[in-house]
UniProtKB/TrEMBL annotation:
Protein name in the entry: Siroheme synthase
Pfam families reported for this sequence: CysG_dimeriser, NAD_binding_7, Sirohm_synth_M, TP_methylase
InterPro entries: 4pyrrol_Mease (IPR000878), 4pyrrol_Methylase_sf (IPR035996), 4pyrrole_Mease_sub1 (IPR014777), 4pyrrole_Mease_sub2 (IPR014776), CobA/CysG_C (IPR006366), NAD(P)-bd_dom_sf (IPR036291), Siro_Cobalamin_biosynth (IPR050161), Sirohaem_synt_dimer_dom_sf (IPR037115)
Function: Then it catalyzes the NAD-dependent ring dehydrogenation of precorrin-2 to yield sirohydrochlorin. Finally, it catalyzes the ferrochelation of sirohydrochlorin to yield siroheme.
Active-site residue numbers: 248 (proton acceptor), 270 (proton donor)
Catalytic activity: uroporphyrinogen III + 2 S-adenosyl-L-methionine = precorrin-2 + 2 S-adenosyl-L-homocysteine + H(+); siroheme + 2 H(+) = sirohydrochlorin + Fe(2+); precorrin-2 + NAD(+) = sirohydrochlorin + NADH + 2 H(+)
Pathway(s) it belongs to: Porphyrin-containing compound metabolism; siroheme biosynthesis; sirohydrochlorin from precorrin-2: step 1/1; Porphyrin-containing compound metabolism; siroheme biosynthesis; siroheme from sirohydrochlorin: step 1/1; Cofactor biosynthesis; adenosylcobalamin biosynthesis; precorrin-2 from uroporphyrinogen III: step 1/1; Porphyrin-containing compound metabolism; siroheme biosynthesis; precorrin-2 from uroporphyrinogen III: step 1/1
Source organism (scientific name): Dyella japonica
Positions annotated to bind S-adenosyl-L-methionine: 225, 301-303, 306, 331-332, 383, 412
Length: 477
């Protein structure tokens, strides 16, 4: 079950709490803070509830639950110790289209009461779907420390200026830039010291400065191999500052989900034999959006400078005077090897690593095969799944032993990761047998045999590497 986040305006609206114990009291208190007209139905109530009844803040329906109590209420909370009564209330509420929360019973509830961080008028709510409320409370405790209490004052100041801000900055990207300057400028410090007038004046100056013609820019950002946890902090910040995101086909949905929700996303898919967006078109898109004053993120799988044509894109940006920066990403060789349990270097087996690309026969033919076939090194082959027969033949023809281990890592670092292992002799057959598809990284060298013993992520490797010599025997030990 996936819940739809919702902040309800209950001000002046009638709500019902069934149960007058400590839990009912706590629920009534939260509803009162939201300005609701609270009615508590119970045979008896706590002293605190008695006080609220006497003060006219809460209405008390004394007695056992009656179906008519649900008439005309917007929502109901069932907070008794009677599970049968709770089921009855849930059924009645469903029939009346009234939202119901049954305490400690997620299945009977049509809404859940979250753990709340109150920085009024800013409210942050955390829900576990009713299944792990203690986890939600622990997360709230962490965020309470991280979120400055002054945020509420900042929100109040901006609310007072909202109409002026919208009138002077009709463009959404300009407004976002203004709000970022407020949050990262001196305004918070002034409000923290209680200097409201100075904070308001500082905000006005930021508003004046933002009205000036904006300068667009481009960030070349490496998205890594797919696991969103591998995105750098600087990369996360860039995604949340972007007005436009030009992203590769292989950038994972989870990474894109980290971007600001209102950013324009444009897929510039490029894969072998199907370039529906050419490199020249990507250049034109970067120039077009930057010229319009937008902050563009060119989001590339892996790292922009490792077989990502990032250098070509920077040359284009520089030639057109477009400001740019580069945020590196974790390239596939590093991530796929690590998630497969394969050390790219090992003092007993590999003193060097070579990164090569083999996305087509032309690129394969330009490689220095005598050098690549040397022992005691690791080869990390990008985009090589369609050229496996040729890669095997070239390496063996130039002296690499047919018994050399390999590891094919498909969808490295993602939940669907698969690792297929074997030797050069059966590389093609193993890949065909297990239906290996792009994206997949090919690792060749003695270290690849360690995938069989050091794997830690996802399913165990598929296939077997036979121990045929001292080096392999040591690696597999």
């Amino acid at each position: 079950m996936k819940l739809y986040p919702l902040f309800a305006d209950l001000s002046g609206r009638p709500v019902l709490v069934v149960g007058g114990g400590v839990v009912g009291e706590r629920k009534a208190a939260a509803l009162l803070e939201a300005g609701a007209r609270v009615t508590v139905g119970a045979l008896d109530i706590t002293p605190a509830l008695h006080g609220w009844v006497d003060a006219g803040r809460v209405q008390w329906l004394r007695g056992s639950f009656e179906d008519a109590w649900l008439d005309d209420v917007w929502l109901v909370i069932a907070a008794t110790s009677n599970s049968e009564l709770h089921r009855h209330i849930a059924v009645l509420a469903e029939a009346r289209r009234v939202f119901v929360n049954v305490v400690d019973d997620a299945e009977q509830s049509s809404f859940h009461v979250p753990a709340v961080i109150d920085r009024s008028p800013v409210t942050i709510a955390i829900s576990s779907g009713g299944h792990a409320p203690m986890l939600a409370r622990l997360l709230r405790e962490r965020l309470e420390v991280a979120i400055d209490p002054v945020i509420g004052s900042v929100a109040t100041l901006l609310a007072q200026m909202r109409q002026r801000i919208r009138a002077r900055l009709p463009d959404v990207s300009l407004r976002r830039r203004f709000y970022e300057r407020v949050l990262h400028g001196p305004v918070q410090s002034l409000l923290r010291r209680g200097q409201w007038a100075l904070a308001e004046a500082s905000t006005e100056r930021l508003l004046d400065a933002t009205e000036a013609a904006p300068t667009g820019s481009v960030v070349l950002l490496g998205a890594g191999p797919g696991d969103p946890g591998l995105l750098t902090l600087r990369g996360l910040r860039a995604l949340n500052e972007a007005d436009v995101i030009l992203h590769d086909r292989l950038v994972s949905v989870e990474v894109l989900a980290l971007a600001r929700r209102d950013a324009e996303r444009i897929e510039v898919a490029k894969q072998a034999g199907n370039h529906h967006t050419t490199q020249a078109q990507i250049h034109d898109l970067m120039r077009e959006h930057a010229a319009a004053g937008r902050r563009v993120v060119r989001l590339k799988g892996g790292d922009p400078f490792v077989f990502g044509r990032g250098g070509e894109e920077l040359e284009f940006l520089r030639s057109h005077g477009i400001p740019y920066e580069v945020v590196p990403g974790i390239t596939a060789a590093l991530a796929c090897a690590a998630y497969a349990g394969v050390p790219l270097t090992h003092r007993d087996h590999a003193q060097s690593v070579r990164l090569v690309t083999a996305h087509c026969q032309n690129s394969v033919d330009t490689l220095d095969w005598p050098a690549l076939a040397q022992e005691r090194q690791t080869l990390a082959v990008y985009m090589g799944t369609s050229e496996l027969p040729l890669i095997r033949q070239k390496l063996i023809d130039h002296g690499r032993a047919a018994s050399t281990p390999f590891a094919l890592v498909e969808n490295g670092s993602r939940p669907e990761q698969r690792v297929v292992v074997g030797t050069l002799a059966n590389l093609v057959e193993q890949a065909e047998r297990h239906g290996v598809r792009s994206p997949a990284l090919l690792i060749i060298g003695e270290v690849a045999s360690l995938a069989t013993t050091l794997s830690w992520f996802g399913s165990p490797p598929l296939g077997i590497i036979a121990s045929t010599g001292p080096a392999l025997a040591s690696a597999a030990a």
